[in-house]
Every structure is written in C-alpha cells, then in structure tokens.
Amino acid sequence: ADESEADASGSGEQPPVEEAAAAPAEEAGEAGAEPATNPAAEEAAPLPGDDSEEAAAATKIAALQRGKLARRKLKEGGGGGDAAEAAADAEEVGDAYDEEGAGEEDEDQDEEEEDEEVEGDDLGDEEEEDFEGGEGYGDFDMLEAAEVDGDEEQVEEDKANLAELFKQAQEEKSAFLDLNQKLQRKLGEHLSTVKKADEGKDVEKSVTDQEQRYYKCLAQVNELRDELKRLQQQHDKQAMEMKRRLDDKQSKAEEIKQAFVEFKREILKGAENSRTSKPIPPKLIASFEKAEAEKDTEVERVRLSNINRRNFLRKLETTLRQKEKLADGLHLIDFEQLKIENQTLNEKIEERNEELLKLRKKTTTTVQVLTHLKEKLQFVQAENQVRKQELSDFEVELTGKRDVLTQVKHERDALRGENAARRQQRGLVSSEELLIDYEKRRLDVIAKKDTVGRLQARYEQVIAQTADLKRKILSSGGVI
C-alpha cells in the first residue's frame, strides 16, 4: 500500500475515472456475474438534475442506506473476503465525496476489516486443521470435497452479488460525481467572493488527494485479490503434493508389509517343532497369519479412532478455551479435570504400548534363543558321538596297557628275587661296618695318591732348580 501511494504521488499522473471504474467491471464480467436490480436502490436513487439541497441530502441518506443494506446482505449470506472488499470500495466512494458521513463510514469499514481478519484467521485455522488431520485420509476427504463444491456454489452466488453491488456503486459514483461538480461550482462561487484565488487551489488539491486515495484503495483491492489467488494456488499445489506423497508412502508401506509377511511365512515354513522335529503345518501358519491380520485391522481401527478422538479433543479444547475467555474462567476446573483424565488415559495407553513392545521383543528373543539352543543341541550330539568313539578306543588301549602292566610286574618280582640272592652272595653288601671301613680306606688311598702327586711335582721342581744352579756355576767357571 505504501509503495502504491509513493508511485501515485511520484508520478503525478491520474488515470481517468472511466478507466479505473472499467477494470473492476471487466473482472466482474469475466467471473460470469449477472447484473441484478435492487428495488430499494432504485427508489432511493438521486436525480442528477436536481440542484436543491434536499435532493443532495436525500442522495446521501440513500447512499448510506444502500451501503448498510448491502453489508447486511453480505453478512447474512456468508460472503467471503471479496464481498467485504467490494462493500469497502462502495463505502470509500461515499467517504471520498461525503464529508458529513465520513466518521460513520470509517467506523463501519473498520468493523468490516476486523470481520475479514477474523474470517481469514478462521480459514487459516481450518486449513491447518485439514493438514493436521491428514492422517485419516478417506471419507473425511470426500466430505471435504463435497463442502468445497458447496463453497464453489457459494462463491458463484457471491460473485453475482458483487456484480450487483459494483453496478450500484458505479451508479452511485456517477451521481456523486455530478453532485460533487455542482457543489464545487457553488463552493467556487462562494470562495471567489470571500477568499483569494490560492484558496481555490487548495480545494482542488484536496479533491485530487481524495481521488488518489480512491485509486490507491482500488489498487490495494486488486493486489489483495491477486494475493488471495496466489495463496489458493499455493495451497492447492501443497495439497496435491501431500496427496502424491501420501500415495507413495502408502504404496511403499504396502510393499514392505507384503514382503515382511512373505518373510515371516518363509521363516514359519522353515521352522521345526523342538520335540518332534517336524515342520509347522500350513493350516497353523494360515491361522497365525489370519490372527495377525485381525490384529493389524484392529490396530488400524483403533488408530483411526485415536485420530478422530484427537481431532475431537482439539476442537473441544478450542471451544473450551473460547468459553473460558467468555466466562472469565468458569470452566477452568472442568477443563483441568478433563485434562488430568486425558493425561491418565494417555499414560495408560503408553504403558500398554510399552508392554506390547516388550512382549514382542521378548518373543523375538525367545525364538532366537530357541534356535540357538537347537543348533547347540545338534552340535553337542555330534560331539557326543565323537567322544563315544574315542572312549571305545581308549578302552581297547587300556586293556592292552593292563596286560603290559601285568607282565612288567612279573618281571619286577623276578628282578627283586634275583637282587636279594646276589646281596646274600656279597659280604660287604650285607655288613654295614665293612662298608664304612671300606669307604674310609678308599678315601685314605685317594688322599695318599694326592700327596704322592704333590711330592713328585715338588721333586721335579727341585731337580729343575738344581740343574739351573749347575749351569750357572759352570758358566761362571766354578767347579761342581
């Protein structure tokens, strides 16, 4: 809005009134709106040729009545943001050329803008709820599609009403322009007698500012309509993208589910009874699959019920919050009690889910342990057979060793007898004193032999010394 004002003030060029009025008329014609007549507007329409003050006052009153009547019809008919903007355009036309009723018109326009903001917020909240509640896609989407069709019919009706209001606004604009020209002529004649020529320029400047304000408002309306179309396209695109992603996720989940079912079926076909070592019958496998399918169906049903209850809870919380705002906290106790109960139920649900998860993990662990024990049993049985074979070999070897041991014992007994006989034959062996004396003599002999060896060595040393002395004496010329 600020940029449009800056462009309008900087350029200094104003489009003609016929071109500015023709643009919305072409848009209304493209929308397929059919012009309609308003009896109240025809009865209260002013006469352009009437110059009296009563006619001017009647024109102003009729314009205000038509604007209020149009706003009331739009509010009762549930018109959207475009209808409110068209009503705001009609009011701004009256604001631009009616100085006396400006205060009331501005207040009505502010109220309508607030209503538009509230409706926009409600639409945003509904869109958020639609995206949040997208988990339960199905019948709810069909209902929403039916509501969208009803909304499209309502939009067509709103367009027709807007075309009618636009036509009335065009008629009012032409009447106000004629009235404005007449009033300006009278005002010019009055000011020419009282004020100077420069004051007339100020009046023309004021009229120019009002026209610029009107054109700026029309530009803002067009921008808002373009923004609304862009947001609608963006939301439609997001909805299609979310729908496509949901379909992809569902198809992928179905493929994974079927693969998992086939995997479990193969596992069950390959499993054996721990006691009989027989495979599981196909009927029992089919009963297991049927029970699991029933459980999955029940889980889906409970999940959908949970989603519906969560959405219902969200709506109840919103309603309760609004009631608390209106009743100054009278329902706060009930809300807190329901909140506590809801929290308790959520905790119970979480506990059940945790127990279910633990049981599933325990079942998986038990199956793994059972399989491991079966494999270990087979390995132990094979090892037991090997040990039995080794035991039989050891028993045969033990029998042979026992025979050898008996023979060795006989030989030992014979050697003992022979040893005893030989001891009896030897005297020294039988007398301990003789053995001690023999040992002493042996030690003495060894000692004497050592002494003899030392003396011989001493003798040889002395002989060598004597020979050396003789040589020295002879060398010195002495006589031995």
TrEMBL record:
Residue ranges, compositional bias (Low complexity): 12-60
Domain CCDC113/CCDC96 coiled-coil stretches: 294-465
InterPro entries per the UniProt record, alphabetical: CC_CF (IPR051885), CCDC113/CCDC96_CC (IPR025254)
Main location: other
Coiled coil: 214-266, 335-366
UniProt keyword annotations, A-Z: Cell projection, Coiled coil
Top-rank taxon: Eukaryota
GO cellular component: axoneme; ciliary basal body
Region Disordered, annotated ranges: 1-60, 73-157
Compartments (UniProt record): Cell projection, Cilium
GO term, biological process aspect, one: cilium assembly
Biased composition range(s): Acidic residues: 88-133, 141-156
Protein name stated in the entry: CCDC113/CCDC96 coiled-coil domain-containing protein
